[in-house]
Amino acid sequence: MKINNLINKVGVLTFILLFVFQSCSSSNDAADETPVVVAPSNLSVQVEVIGKTADKPDGDGSGKIHLTITASNATSYKVLIDNQLKEIFTGDFTYEFTASGTKNYPIIVSAYNGAQFVSSTTSVNVFVSRKLLWADEFDADGAPNTSKWGYNTGTGDGWGNNELEYYTTRPENVIISNGTLKIKAIKEEYLGSHYTSARLLTKGKFSFKYGRAEVRAKLPVGGGTWPAFWMLGDNIDTAGWPLCGEVDILESVGNNPNVNHSSLHSPGRSGNTPDTATTTVPNSATEFHVYAADWSPESIKFYVDDKLFYTYANAASTPFNQNFFLILNLAMGGNFGGAVDPNFANATFEVDYVRVYN
């Protein structure tokens, strides 16, 4: 009887040990198992151009598109569009292009589940109408609008060009009257300089990246005059020149009248830059002409009265892919302005408007 009880107890103990061992083994096996991540599949991308009709196959000019994205087992999506990478967590995505004109844009969509992903490439034609981003029509008499323009003043040690003028904010040198801005260079003794003038800029007030900048202007007369409408990179205070980049839309010199110079300055291509071109502008001192630059990631195109005369091939390696601000000034003499006519008394750079479009 005692032996039977002992056998029974041993059997029960064995059963318990086997159960515990099997349970532990099962737990360890479960802990060692890594959840299987299923790669997304069946990726579908539908592109809707907002405002698209039979008459407007590339949209209504708003530049807006809408993507509808679906994929099995996807938890998120990444969209590479217009050189920008966007991450989204639903299948609805709206984007607005800003570069004016009709262009074809590639779109790469990737569906993700953890590290697993699948991608699809498509493209879309989109029309973006030209929109005015910023302007000064100079239609209020008096000093320039301080919400739009600031000033560089003084000699600036010749502003890097051995210029001769002293820039002021005086109404004698800068004034709006009868619908135009007038920047006037005057031969006079002023704080150690022999000439005065003005230099206006939108730094800290307005800057933009890509688009069209244009000025309608009538140029001054006289040897040594050097009017300009140009742009500098917003980062000039930290990067310095020429790393910040410079885009000269209008430059003309009184010693070589009726010729417009458009140039770009960048590291290794500053000073005597090879990135420059000229065009003849008849009657530039007696008639208003429109000087403009169309700027995109691919190119910067220069025009006078809407006639293209120079195209610069832009690239990601140049400084011309950041925000730039505007400058209007009338310099005297210097490396580019040249010798001042000894009979020079005064001259006026007259500006009808400055406009910036997308």
Provide a brief overview of the structure.
This protein has about 350 residues and is mostly beta strands.
Mind explaining what this structure looks like?
The chain is 11% helix and 47% strand. The longest helix has 31 residues, at 2-32. Strand 17 (246-251) and strand 18 (259-265) form a beta hairpin. Strands 8, 10, 11, 12, 13, 15, 20, 21, 22 and 24 form a 10-stranded mixed β-sheet that branches. With 358 residues, it is mainly β. The model is unreliable at 6-27 (pLDDT under 50). The protein has 3 helices and 24 strands.
Provide the descriptors you would attach to this structure in a database record:
single chain, 358 residues, mainly beta, ten-stranded mixed beta sheet
Output the number of helix runs. Answer: 3
The share of residues in extended strands comes to over 45%
Principal-axes shape call: elongated
- The structural class is mainly beta
- Order of H and E elements: HEEEEEEEEEEEEEEEEHEEEEEEEHE
Can you give the helix content as a percent range? 10-25%
Extract low-pLDDT stretches: 6-27
How far apart lie the N and C ends?
A: 102 Å
Describe the sheet with the most strands: 10 strands, mixed
Mean model confidence by pLDDT: 92
Radius of gyration using CA atoms only: 33 Å
Number of DSSP strand runs: 24
List the helices and strands and how they pair.
Elements: H1 2-32, E1 41-49, E2 64-72, E3 76-81, E4 84-88, E5 92-96, E6 101-113, E7 116-128, E8 132-136, E9 150-152, E10 165-167, E11 174-177, E12 180-190, E13 193-197, E14 199-201, E15 211-218, E16 225-233, H2 236-239, E17 246-251, E18 259-265, E19 276-280, E20 289-295, E21 299-304, E22 307-313, E23 324-332, H3 334-337, E24 346-357
Parallel strand pairs: 10-13
Antiparallel strand pairs: 1-2, 2-5, 3-4, 3-6, 6-7, 8-24, 9-14, 11-12, 12-13, 12-24, 14-23, 15-20, 15-24, 16-17, 16-23, 17-18, 18-19, 20-21, 21-22
